[in-house]
Each structure stands twice: as C-alpha cells, then as structure tokens.
Amino acid sequence: MNFEELKALIQSHIEDAKVQVTDLTGTQDHLGLLVVSDVFKGKMLIAQHQIIMDILKEKLKQEIHAVQIKTMTHEQATNQGIQI
C-alpha cells in the first residue's frame, strides 16, 4: 500500500484528519502514523488509537506488520509547533 492511499483511507473516515506516514524500517510494513484531528478531542489516548486501529484493521491483516500511532487535536499540534 502506498502512503498516499493510507492517508486517503484515514481521511475517508476522519474528514478533518491531517496524516503523516513514516516508513520506520525501510520495508514499508512497519509504519509510523501521526494523525491530527479534532475527532480526538476529549477522548483518552487509548480511544484515539482504537479509532485508527479500527480504520486499519483490514490492512493490518495483510499489508501492515506493525504501526506506531501518535494522535492529537489540531490545537495540540499547533501548540507543539507541528505542521502537516
């Protein structure tokens, strides 16, 4: 799966999502995800990550071996100086 397709998949479920995908090992099956969205506002970290895992569940069965997830709201990203 190419990274643009992965971004599009997440954005098709979370309309305001800004997504950054990083290949952690060079094999394109160990990925780092940074997802910024206000859908995470007020949710515990585990609930935020579960949203992403639910979106990726089919890809995790076939194409993605491991994923490192970082989630935050747009306000948190701005406060941390993160731009995607």
UniProtKB/TrEMBL annotation:
It comes from the Bacteria. One of its GO terms (cellular component) is cytosol. InterPro entries: BOL2, BolA, BolA-like_sf. GO terms for biological process: intracellular iron ion homeostasis; protein maturation. It holds the Pfam family BolA. GO terms for molecular function: 2 iron, 2 sulfur cluster binding. Transmembrane segments: none annotated. SUPFAM superfamilies: BolA-like (SSF82657). Belongs to the BolA/IbaG family. This is BolA-like protein. The lineage of its organism: Bacteria, Pseudomonadati, Bdellovibrionota, Bacteriovoracia, Bacteriovoracales.
